[in-house]
Amino acid sequence: MARVILxxxxxxxxxxxxxxxxxxxxxxxxxxxxxxxxxLTKLPNREYFTPAEVKSKLTSWEDPQ
Length: 65
Fold this sequence. Notes:
Blueprint: H1 2-11, E1 18-19, H2 20-29, H3 34-41, E2 47-48, H4 51-58
Helix pairs in contact: 2-3
């Protein structure tokens, strides 16, 4: 759950739709933690239309906490 919360923080102002590479680049520019970048790089390489769509793909990589 912690990772998904961090994603909202780093990606909330990104303009959508956005490709995976744009998500990663933007998170890097925003100073995202390594585990956030790692999770984003594991996403399928495609275009995402909403933050909720990104979140739905990340739930399988949530940190146990």
